[in-house]
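Please check this record.
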Amino acid sequence: MDDERRPGSGLETLLVGLDAACGPVFDRLEKRGAELPALEGILADGASGPLESQLPPWTASAWPSLYTGTNPGKHGVFGFLDYSGYDWDVVNATDVREHALWELLADEGKSSVVVNVPVTHPPNEFDGALIPGYVAPDSPTCHPDGLLDDVREELGAYRVYPRHTGGEEASTEAKIDEYRTVTRMRGEAFRHLADRFSPEFGFVQFQTTDTVFHECPGDFAALQAVYEAVDEQVGEILDACDPDTVIVASDHGIGKYSGYDVRVNSLLRDEGYVETARGGGMPSWDVLRDEQFFDDEGGESGTDALLERVMSGLTRVGITSQRLNAVLDRFGLAEFVVAHAPKAMVRAGTERVDFSASTAYARSHIECGIRLNVDGREPDGVVPADEYEAVRAELIDRLATLETPDGKPAFDDVAPREDYFHGSEADDAVDIVLVPHDFDQFLSTQLRGETFGPPTEPYNHKRDGMVAATGAGIDSDASLAGAHLFDVAPTVLASLGLPRGDHMDGEVLDIVESAGERTYPDYDGQARETTDEQAVEERLSDLGYME
């Protein structure tokens, strides 16, 4: 690979990823008088509109769909965790079983610079440079080897995750300052690498536009500070790189939840499908907010570790988190404790799903569905293979008409997985897909006394994100009606004069002229590797995703 600057070559297409960006967020920022000249210029000069996300509309699965142009049934990533039987590992780039855009471009003689895109660690080799994003370690392997050391030497510092202080809750001011810092790191790193490698394609992603909602829910001053910091970096990239075409896209939207937590495993337990045990168990990635932050070595406060041991002791004599919850609920304290108790303490004393003994269960709210424990597929399956369809149909019928306490439907759709996923990896999807009503109900895997409860987080993911494009070859008057997450990759290819891949599930958006369709090389990339999940878990749980 030639990593020297190629005189005369320039950035043809820049893809800017804004996690969780959507129309309602920009409307809120406009009302606040936020100064976003770069982003507003792109919106004003080009075409823009909603971008429908996939199922599930969560970071770890949605970004691979965006950068491969395929559904999770083809690329293979359905959430933050990859499961093998009842065991699990945090996903990484070796779980993505389709070519990323930059790999396809390398086969066409075009180089790329990719910064901070989720689920790109460890990177494959290609012509260009890549610094991984979300779910990577804070000092990730980059491409080419030694790249991160070079970036840190040149820029002074670079890290994947915002760093807050110790094991104590950071102030909002400290969080905002750190959001600005890591946002600046993305922009500086991208500009440095674009200057060094002179790529035809650039992709820079900003995660803080999502993080701020999870860590500072309802704080619109913090939201404004984050977007203004992102806009500053986008503006400097545009000035430095002068791309011919700019595309801005998000993986999903975000907004206020006013519905209920739908505790799927509580319902399945009451219906006789879920068996339970006490303590430990598989992480559910549901939200039990614990504002702890970890350095590269990780670590937990002494107080939290002591509370975990105490809760474990109580569990051995029959006192679970749920029993404590019943007492606390009488005093109106249950939801406060769930929101603030250390996760390790709660997990140590929680009645949990006994996956190997259950007929059906929800492993993670992010998967948006239910898994059956099938004999011959799971290690201790209890559902005979010849009864699979009957059990699944029975569950679909029971859940399809479920209503919340205020009489609203719990789900917009309850369907077999093949209605949403297709491809070589589709068998790893949930067996029954649950689509929360208006994404205003929150799927939860918690085992609590009731099926329905107040939403665990006031803000969370919505189905509609956004897309905007401007520059050479972009028809700003063309319609973006029906634009889907899967359409981004084929549209990027078309902006570079290249055909859509016939393996892709998306189409070229009308804003750019199609270059036709062709067959690209089959994926034959890296063998699947395991992740150092402890360090990654701790950082991702800072956002409240993991019990």
Remarks:
- The radius of gyration is 23 Å.
